[in-house]
Amino acid sequence: MDNNIKKDIIFVSLFLLILANVFVWQFILSLDGNLKVVFFDIGEGDSAFVETPQGHQILIDGGPGQRVLTKLGHAMPFWDKTIDLVILSHPDYDHLSGLVSVLERYQVKNILWNGGLVNNTVFTNWQKDLAIEKAQVFTAQSGQVIKAGQARFLVLYPLADLAGQSVEKESNNSSVVARLSYGSSDFLFTGDLPTKNEIELLASNQDVASEVLKVAHHGSKYSSSPEFLAVVNPQLAIISCGANNTYGHPNQEVLNNLQNFAINTLRTDQKGDITITSDGSNFYYKQ
Ligand SMILES: [Zn+2]
């Protein structure tokens, strides 16, 4: 009897030691001094995961359905159920739905969104979860800076405070646009911002120039005007869209414009998850 108990204790101790090693290694491996941005292959929608050199974890949009939970399960250690910041670009299903599941499964410390109102079940659940979650909630407006160690987000759009206003009719117009910077690497996240709002953003004279552009609205023809591409002047464009989607995303004209500007373009429907790392001077991605 005594021997059996001893064996059990030794087994438990060994198991804990092995587990501790795994934890330590995962922690060390995740802090390699690089910024990592993963554009999830989430189907027809948007979801990107950011890990800063100091280990901050940030999720921008959650895509449709619950697929983001599997993606986060791979991107984060299994024991880690805390996310430092969630950004919702705008309250459309293909950006919001997964975030509702994320709020239910993860402890989210900070939430940034445009505060605009729409009328559907997913949005009602989002509002319920916002009320329960013990997160600091911020309404996005141009000029805000979010520091995450050496990385930082600058909010560029919307230009006005939309909190409590209905954005039901033209939700895309309310998209939060934010630029993530680490050293000389800038990533521009555009939500589904349409061209008329791109022009409004350019007219605000904020610096939108970025090495990496998350192409707005899954490559729709109503976004990514040549004027906007010229000023952003990215080296790399990411299109997040579903394989064989019914919207015809990405639009051929947008693809042609990207090619005319010699912007290398990667698509989640063709490449799967796209991971880009930056050491603060250069950025790298797997082809
Ligand atoms: Zn969308």
Give the helices and strands, then pairings.
Elements: H1 2-30, E1 35-39, E2 48-51, E3 57-60, H2 67-75, E4 82-87, H3 93-105, E5 107-113, H4 121-132, E6 136-139, E7 145-148, E8 151-157, E9 177-182, E10 185-189, H5 195-203, E11 212-214, H6 226-232, E12 236-239, H7 252-260, E13 264-267, H8 268-271, E14 274-278, E15 283-285
Parallel strand pairs: 3-4, 4-5, 5-6, 10-11, 11-12, 12-13
Antiparallel strand pairs: 1-2, 1-14, 2-3, 7-8, 8-9, 9-10, 14-15
Describe this structure in words.
The structure is a single chain. The protein has helices at 2-30, 67-75, 93-105, 121-132, 195-203, 226-232, 252-260, 268-271, and strands at 35-39, 48-51, 57-60, 82-87, 107-113, 136-139, 145-148, 151-157, 177-182, 185-189, 212-214, 236-239, 264-267, 274-278, 283-285. The chain is of the alpha/beta class. The chain folds into two domains: 1-30; 32-285, 4-Layer Sandwich (Metallo-beta-lactamase, Chain A). An eight-stranded mixed beta sheet has the order 6-5-4-3-2-1-14-15, with helices on one face. The chain has a seven-stranded mixed beta sheet with strand order 7-8-9-10-11-12-13. Strand 11, helix 6 (226-232) and strand 12 form a beta-alpha-beta unit. Helix 3 runs parallel beside helix 4 (121-132). The radius of gyration is 20 Å and the shape is globular. The N and C termini lie far apart (59 Å). Zinc ion (ZN) binds next to helix 3.
